[in-house]
Specification:
The protein has 464 residues and is an alpha/beta fold. It has three domains: 82 residues, Winged helix-like DNA-binding domain superfamily/Winged helix DNA-binding domain (Arc Repressor Mutant, subunit A); 233 residues, P-loop containing nucleotide triphosphate hydrolases (Rossmann fold, 3-Layer(aba) Sandwich); 109 residues, no CATH class. The chain is built from 20 helices and 17 strands. The chain has a five-stranded mixed β-sheet with strand order 4-7-8-12-11. Helix 1 runs parallel beside helix 11, helix 17 runs parallel beside helix 19 and helix 18 crosses helix 19.
Amino acid sequence: MIEAQSSAEENGQDDMIRMPPQPKTVRETGLELALIVELVTKVMYVCGKLHLPVLTGKLRLSINVLREVLGFMLTEQLVEVAARGDSDLDVSYQLTHTGKLRASDFMNRCRYLGPAPVTLQAYCDLIARQSSRHASMDRVSAASVAAAFGEDSLDPAVRDMVGAAMQSSRSMLLYGPSGSGKSMIARKLGKLQQGIVAVPCAVLAGNEIVLVHDPLVHLAPAAQARQAEDRRSCDTRWMLCQRPLIQVGAEFCADMLDLRHDAAGGVYHAPPHLMANNGMLVIDDLGRQRMPSADLLNRFSAPLDTHTDHLTLHGGCKLGVPFDVTLVFATNLPPQLLLDDASMRRIAYKIHVGALSEPHYRALFRRQCRVNGLGCDDAVVEHLLNDLHAASGRALLASTPRELLDRLADFARFAGIEPRLTVPALDQAWSSLFAGSRSGTPVPSQPTVPFLADCGDSLLERIS
């Protein structure tokens, strides 16, 4: 994993060199003077008297750009100089009565007070340059994949397939029983993405502002990269981030696939796949969404082919935006019940994540014991495999060791004692984890369709 982090930092240095330079004039921002005047007016309306460097920090525009804008506003008697110090930077401005009236009108239309947006064209250009598909970008290596999954006892065939999918940045479907580790694999793949990217705080689409950057999903890069950024004259309307990893689940619905208009704020919020540009979007629990899986995949079929998506602004106006996303679907339902052959062909890699082999399961259980500070002897491991798993018919799934040991610790804390791994403690944890599946009590035989037990009554009826 150290190798992957080092590569990301080195690649980040290249990204910073290619970031847009700091605009020195209004023309170089790509924005109309009227829009910047509106932003300055609203910030002053809310904050009152503002020092020039403070205004620069709020709007992420250079001193030279704001001097040009404020010069115009002085001429139009929208602002006045409130205080002047010894230097050219030591100047404070405030709105005039006319400026306050104008600000009230601006606020009624749009209450956005953040950094100035970038143009849609600038956004499209930089997304294309930062694409992981670009020939100059670093690719995930076999060594980095092996290091990332080295302690997870991942089947070598599965590891090779996810590595090949990451190499190509093409879509993949992870399928298998609940608890087999699909979500864990998806999260680790997101962390394996190489390099850092620039994400705009907001984009100007037509005359509308679309919010893109979210600090909860666009994570800051390493401190070394941030320090390098400060030494360069970059356009600070862009934020340097790790390649994004956005994960959605059963709550994902058709409404989330388009721009969301915030009537109170007068702005739009970007949908998850737009926020995931230059990164990865994981759609977990495929088949549990309120829209059919085939419809969901069909929604992405054209963007996957053209790398362009079309979103809708208020009033029906269509907006073309980049689609540079590695799509990862994960499901515990049989793929043949979710997607027809045509839909399946649109997904580049279909990867089955199943039960672990007995040696891998033993190693994983012992590793989880070490993580939890528990001693582990052979008798307990044999009891787990022979008297619990084998007797009950439970598959050796990757999630089971962690879940068992978590419950064992819960019982110990409740009793006010130190957790210890014993046969009785393990039996107690097992009984609390699996309903109707105590030691020595077999569960009903598994259906012939793989992991169909997780599918629900409606799918069982369709099969029968």
